[in-house]
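Quick bug: Aminotransferase output formatted oddly.
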Amino acid sequence: MAFLSDTLARVKPSPTIAVTNKARELKEAGRDVIGLGAGEPDFDTPENIKQAAIAAIAAGETKYTAVDGIPALKKAICAKFERENGLRYTPAQITVGSGGKQVLYNALVATLNPGDEVIIPAPYWVSYPDMVLLAGGTPVFVEGKMEAGYKISAADLEAAITPKTKWFIFNSPSNPSGAAYTRDELKALTDVLMRHPHVWVMSDDMYEHLVFGDFTFTTPAQVEPGLYDRTLTCNGVSKAYAMTGWRIGYAGGPVELIKAIGKVQSQSTSNPCSISQHAAVEALNGPQEYIAQSRVAFERRRDLVVAALNACPGITCPTPEGAFYVYPSIAGLIGKTSKGGVAITDDEAFASALLEETGVAVVFGAAFGLSPAFRISYATSDAALSEACARIKAFCEGLH
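Here's what came back:
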């Protein structure tokens, strides 16, 4: 009898974490490495949020809390949804988890049965398919081609829906592409979903506040109120407030689904960190200036990286609408050989050779379900990004 679960054999470790760990190991070994793999703001958590956590510790807020969130945080989340998204939820419709990832995973565990299908647009966040597999479902991929801005069309979505479809996972702005759907583009998708009442919507809005230029963010239940009763609107404080390590994610949805998510959480992790919850209350209710300041920095970095990558022979880099990622195509480099003698047969070979020969760590496109490409997180300093892009350009110029 095998010791490890058959279910575990269906999934793989997170490639983005693997790249980050590899870059860290090389740095510790003395290599000059620029890590562009982690999706983590390089800014510190705003001071008012840190002080709220310190005050919570001083006040003795160090005990177990309600499994799915303290009342003050649920109230703050309700206020946020109404203020920023025009969505009205009661505290009974809110769940809080240890990061956005836990909220998504809990929802899938609570709802999927063997044979249930989950539609996932590609390129996708690396964890979506494996969470579906761990929960017993079947991921169904719909490709958003680079020529379409890495977005899927209404016809693409319609063609993927079957009687077995239970969820449509929607992520805008997207990790890994940074693509964001306009209100009209989203309305076309929600019109399809309205024709298929058995399909639920899991909207991952984690990068909501990181949109650039005059782009306006919208979320499915906001665009189509008819989807409100079968949409789980997910978000968190990690990206918007540089709180990745605090591990607080949340979602709003129908009461019965929220209860089911809470049931899963009660038998796994129980409550999120009490101190982090109090910090998140301050993040949502307190001053919001940090968001605008970080958005300016990320937009500047986006423009720097897009321009630099498009100057590299064989690379084509679309300009994303949001998040802090770019997803350039390397179709023009496949079949070439690096100075170090590595054949660029695919994007994994490209990323591996780039790291070994230049010290720049990126994540290969196959990890996100769309090749040949790679993902750069530009959530690091302008200086590091300029140097990394210069190394990428020299690497590309050295291919033959």
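Actually, after a second look the formatting is fine. The chain has two domains: 8-44+290-392, 63-285. Closing.
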